[in-house]
Amino acid sequence: MNGKVNCLELFAGCGGLGYGFHKEGFNMVCASELDPNISGTYEKNFTDTAVITGDITKPEIKTQIYDCFKEVACDVILGGPPCVAYSMSGHRNSRDPRGQLFNDYIAVVSKLQPKVFVMENVKGILTIMHDKPILTKEEKELADKYYKLEEEKIKYTELKKTLVFHNSQESDDYKKNEANIKQNKKDLKSMSNDISKFRMKVTDIIKKKFNDVGYKVELKLLKASNFGVPQNRERVIFIGVKDDIDKKISYPVDTHNADGTDDKKKYITVKEAIGDLKDKPENKEQHHIYSKHSEAFVDKIKNTKVGESVNKKYSEAYFRCWPNKPSNTVKENHGGVFVHYEKHRVMTPRELARLQSFPDDFKFNGPKSSVLLQLGNAVPCGLSSAIAKEIKKIFV
Length: 396
Prior knowledge:
By secondary structure, the chain is α/β, with parallel strands linked by helices. 36% of the residues lie in helices and 14% in strands.
């Protein structure tokens, strides 16, 4: 790179995306994060970065961010607006406010006009649809009707989960609930042909909004294991470059694959990533903290084969990882994290951090529950480094 390239990281989390850029020589001037425990992690690892803690939807937080760039230009903006509303594993609510936070990201890009931005999100964003930015009266009526049915679907699904059968009255409630679910499905299906009248792909909305503030934009789905991360995590990466910059947008080329063919390296496996930690004593400073399991739960783990979950109702929580493959996507799962492939316990936060390609000297702030949340939401450092190397080319 020619000279110092100044970065801002929005929705920073613990800094997985920023860490890769930092390691590739980018100057992390400022980061913004809502949660104080998580922003504390950022402060521990990016000691020269101004970390702003607070809700980015509030004007005063945006003002603090802008103030960081009064004396220096903002060259790159990074960040991943929270992805709850787009997640394939959750209720994909198109009007969830947490699915609208990309508007705040766009607002900051519009104000600071960086040369480049990098925005990441979950794979689910590729298929979800949002209401069109401008709706006619008739389109809005259709949208409201459909949204009401979506809300009912979520409500009925949650009710079904919580119903317990103790008496005939509750059994009757369950039957009534089942009838409601069937009718709700029927009503949603009957409106399926109307959806395109009031909704469009959220990725098209995002690209159009960036186009309107002066950026050419591309997006691509990247898999972390293809870049030397011991995890099959997939992330959609948006890259935008200012219209007046004559540089081509490029994405990193895969460096790894399953069998090491085509001049690539073999995937890094779970065992290669964490095998040396399995018998190490607990180390709270390094977050190598063992969970205390009941005898009954340990017995369940002992009877769980590699490639299965301890709780057969779930495919991800308490999943016993294959040792000779990259892991599935690391998620917080309310503490129901991966089970060790050999030991009869769940993985420690440090082991999960290894699967996310965080170095061992990366420090986390807050209680174990917060650390697990941070790890579950982070971009793997190895993936962010690969992206950063491509962004460097724009500044040469």
